[in-house]
Amino acid sequence: MHTYGQAYYDLKNALQPLYDEGEATAIAHAILEHITGADKLERLTDKDVLFTEVQQQQYEDTKVLLLKATPVQYIVGKTWFAGREFIVNNSVLIPRPETEELVEWIIHDNAGSSPAILDIGTGSGCIAISLKLGMPLSAVTACDVSSGALLVARMNASNLDADIEVKHIDFLDAEQVATLGKYDIIASNPPYIPETDKATIHANVLEHEPHVALFVPTDDALLFYRIIADFGQSHLNDGGLIYCELDRDYALQAKALFEDKGYTDVEVRKDMAGNTRMLKAVLGKK
Fold first, then answer.
1. Is residue 78 part of a domain?
2. 171-188, pLDDT tens digit by residue?
3. Do 203 and 110 sit in the same domain of this protein?
4. What distance in Å separates the CA atoms of residue 160 and residue 156, rounded to the nearest whole number?
5. How far, in Å, CA of 6 to CA of 15, rounded?
6. H-assigned helices in 184-222
7. Pairing of strands 264-270, 276-282
8. Beta bridge pairs of residue 276
9. Where are the alpha helices (DSSP H) in the chain?
10. What dihedral angle (degrees, nearest 10) is formed by the CA atoms of 51, 57, 63, 69?
11. Is residue 11 a part of any domain in this protein?
12. Closest by CA position to 2, among listed 23, 27, 32
């Protein structure tokens, strides 16, 4: 049997070929807290406490998954986004901090209003739910092509008491898209990584996160931005807003696309890491 202390160092050292030291440390702490129920300080105080047989088996099973680059969030079944705990599994992308910045931008611009909002490609529901909770007067619809993702989004909405509508919509299917109504705000973190970039993606993303939410054809990297821009022309109210997360390598091309489609005041912003990752566009003049 491992002690708490032994298990931490064993796991941290085993992970360092896959992750840098800081990330390996964070993952080891997260897994040990998940298994033992004890936080870092408690485990430091009780570093000589032995695992139970059940905990030891759970540790061994989890270590195998981690060494296959399974994201820790999928193993523990949850992650934090915008200060709230969300359920995640391999049907949905793991929410990223950059997406929190997109949500903050939307809420800052529209606080106190009561917009009709559509979240395209909702995944875990992190954007839609955070917008509803940040703007309680809003009416939020979340859609996704994945039935598995929609199940997760519904569970998160229920757990977080967010009254949102969830719809199964394939945005590449014009007939399905036509069933949607009119909105004041469209938000989306769409698929935007070209297929040829797969070789540059870390194994914990490439081998475990849903490809349908990640990749677009290499010869059509702006596929979803074009579809969203066209959709907005007929499904946004006058003065309506589109907010999207971007691939930094195609950010200026995405900006030009929205401008070519007749949107005004098209703005791109950098994220906390200094990458151009967010876009806002206005349909007509307010």
1. no
2. 999 999 999 999 999 999
3. yes
4. 6
5. 14
6. 203-206
7. antiparallel
8. 270
9. 4-15, 21-36, 40-45, 53-67, 72-76, 97-110, 126-134, 147-159, 174-177, 203-206, 223-235, 251-260
10. -140
11. yes
12. 32
The mean pLDDT of 192-221, rounded to a whole number, is 76
Q: Bridge partners of 278?
A: 245, 269
Q: pLDDT band for position 285 (50/70/90)?
A: low
CB 195 within 8 A of CB 217: yes
**High-pLDDT (> 90) share of the chain, %:** 78
Question: CA nearest 122: which of 149, 96, 102?
Answer: 149
Q: Taking phi first (over 0 means left), then psi (-120 to 50 degrees means alpha), and beta for anything else, what does residue 169 get?
A: beta
* Residues 40 and 159 grouped into a single domain: no
Contact in structure between 126 and 86 (CB atoms under 8 Å): yes
CATH number, domain containing residue 120: 3.40.50.150
One-letter amino acid at 159 equals N
Residue 162 resides in a domain:
yes
Q: Is residue 81 part of a domain?
A: no
Rg (CA), the chain: 21
The total of structural domains in the chain comes to 2
Helices (H), 97-196: 97-110, 126-134, 147-159, 174-177
Q: Is the dihedral of CA 199, 205, 207, 209 positive or negative?
A: negative
The whole domain housing 231 covers 90-282
